[in-house]
Amino acid sequence: MIKKFCALVMVYTFLTITVIPAANAGTPVNIGYQGVLCEIATYIAVEKGFFTEEGLDVTLVKGDWNTVKDGLAAGKIAAAQGLLMNWLKPIEQGLDVKLTVGVHTGCLKIISSKASGITAVTQLKGKKVGVPSIGSAPHLLAFRATAIAGLSPEKDIQWKIFPPAELKIALEKGEVDAVAVADPIGAIIEKGVPGAVTLVDSAKTKPYVDEYCCLIGVNGKLVRENPELAAKITRAFAKSAKWISLNRAEAAAIITEKKYVPIDKEFAAQIVEHYDYQPSTNAAKSAVLYAAKELKKVDILAPSTDPEKLAKFVFADLPGLDQYKNIKRNYGKY
Where are the transmembrane segments (predicted)? Predict the structure, then answer.
């Protein structure tokens, strides 16, 4: 019954490679990205020179999530930012990637239409919920939220799959009663669909408000064989996140003017304002453990998986990151 959540869907597409020349040639490194707003730390690390500062000559490799994930597994991509709930199941199943730092919170939402009359997660029983794919981070957020609300995610919800760009239309046409999405699509729906109700916003709703949605994943072989290089990559991302926390409007202007994301800078700034950019290693470890426990409760992780052992296995402690250890969050305190 739960097997459909356990299968890794391997989607093979061609990589789009964008070469970003470094000011001074350094160690060549491929960084994966999908071209979505929550990857702003990737773009700013390039544009503000944080990769170069760490002695890295970066090539950005663009693809969908499965392409980036497969590139990491094959060693063609050294590192990438990804959603926490997208990382755990593949790593449990053998993906050789280590998580190294948390970047920011927020960016996932569950939104209902006005016509549905739904104003709380408990009212989703028997309803149709649109998701970008089964096992995606938005789907797993909704899976967790409905379970916490006392529903059976498998029996009580009709999950409907739509390409991310079509979820707004599906909600407007009444093909679904609610959608689980990531920004910027979530923010676009909130702004553009009259009467839409945000049931869960991971940037604001407890217990998700303190949970890192996005963490940096580094190829496992690279971590084992060259931890210093893995640390340089991780520090560049952490520096970028810290800079964004202090310069949100400028960061939004940079990524829109450079065409990393297809939205205007004012709207990008509004969205980014809600994310908590506090790069951390220790708090990220806690996020991994909390999410693993939650996914185990709803049978996403295998019955034989010990969440604490998985969390320890997933995260890599790298040298030179002591300054990012002291952020604390309230996981499971609600």
Answer: none
d(C-alpha 98, C-alpha 60), whole Å: 19
* Rounded CA separation 5/308 (Å): 21
CA distances from 262 to 37, 188, 198 (A): 9, 12, 23
Quick: pLDDT tens for 97-151.
999 999 999 999 999 999 999 999 999 999 999 999 999 999 999 999 999 999 9
Q: Token match 């006392």: residue?
A: 150
Number of domains in the chain: 2
Map residue 276 onto helix, strand or coil.
Answer: coil
CA distance 325 to 234: 13
pTM for this model (two decimals)? 0.88
Of the residues 153, 177, 201, which one is the last residue of a structural domain?
201
Predicted confidence (pLDDT) at residue 258 exceeds the cutoff of 70: yes
Residue 306, Cβ neighbours under 10 Å: how many? 12
CA distance 71 to 60: 12
**Residue closest to 180 by CA, chosen among 204, 203, 164:** 164
Q: Which structural domain range is residue 256 located in?
A: 3-105+212-324
